[in-house]
Amino acid sequence: MHICSTDIDNLDKLTRVNLINSLSGFKSANLIGTADKRGQENLSIVSSVFHIGANPPLIGMIIRPHSVPRHTLENIIETGVYTINHVHNEIIEQAHQTSARYDKHISEFDAVGLQAQYKGSCKAPFVLQSKLKIAVKLMSTQTIELNQTELVIGQITDIYLEDDLAYCDDGFVDLERLNTVALSGLDRYHSTSAITRLSYAKCDKPLSHITIPPKVKDQKEP
Amino acid sequence: MHICSTDIDNLDKLTRVNLINSLSGFKSANLIGTADKRGQENLSIVSSVFHIGANPPLIGMIIRPHSVPRHTLENIIETGVYTINHVHNEIIEQAHQTSARYDKHISEFDAVGLQAQYKGSCKAPFVLQSKLKIAVKLMSTQTIELNQTELVIGQITDIYLEDDLAYCDDGFVDLERLNTVALSGLDRYHSTSAITRLSYAKCDKPLSHITIPPKVKDQKEP
Description:
2 copies of one chain form a homodimer.
Chain A: E1 2-4, H1 5-10, H2 13-22, E2 27-28, E3 30-35, E4 41-46, E5 50-53, E6 58-63, H3 70-79, E7 81-86, H4 92-97, H5 108-112, E8 116-117, E9 126-127, E10 132-144, E11 149-161, E12 182-184, E13 188-197, H6 216-220
Antiparallel strand pairs in A: 2-12, 3-4, 3-7, 5-6, 6-11, 7-10, 8-9, 10-11, 12-13
């Protein structure tokens, strides 16, 4: 099946949105927690969180214009901080429901049945139920002129992992142990099964399969 | 477990890379096909392809500086076109092996055992073995000053789907039918199992579970 530019142009809006959203492959599913200066909380599911770099530890996301997460963007700009919280298999419906167009004075935490949690000095709320939570300091926002979406880049300042055993001694986090889900298209949620972990690729050496290394906690408590 | 900024700063390089790469959640696994003006081919696995918008159909990716995919970036800038090819469960090792630092005159297609394929007027090679292939026209590149990575944005011009039955009549593409894989961290590959597909969220209406709609081809051939 070949779908060309003209075919894409001729699709009705919803079909086009479903199709194009499917093309990048599997996506991350994260809840972005924010609050405005007065403490009014907001929570929004975002499927476009992506890794930018490890040193400094930078993470990016795309926020669509004129859509619900606009409150998210306003709060991030107002306070300079936000949280990223992994969605796991037991909070999928609550997470998805945050994409409804709630008024700004309504906290999506209350509306969908998730609990805000404050940790350390971070002014933005975390999701209590999430098992991997990240505090992020805003570094830059910029408008992508091609379609007026916003690229938001932040630096990771704190990582909270609710299950020590998911942290491996080489730094790898076992997302399957946390039941973190993946997204496809706009609205389909998936659990995952590990196929393999592969060694660093070299030109002159065959790949090997890495067993997930011993967990940090295992070593501490032999 | 709490990992703060200082802890992150004190990690050795590899541990830090593994940890920070795990935090965004599941990632897409795509092979980027390019050629330079003289036709020298390059193929590179990229885990940072993400959706930017449906109208126009834009797709983004992050290319690290001074790393193997630099040939990819050079070719994209030289020719203005590239292909994005989903990685499925049967080509994981070949796909991962493209991340080795091959010299520019070596085609990763040959080195890893994948086959270049040309379709339509696209000057960049597709991966024959991939089941979902996209031709992309370069729209912009920009350096992210925070860490000197490059944000590459392209417009989708052609979509090739090797299994018509994966295309649903509402535009959704069934990635599980294509056995497209997800990535976590730097190097772990996962298959997926659908949990649910959820309806568009509204403030005043409960969510419903959507069954994957009848496939386009089913309707054409009743």
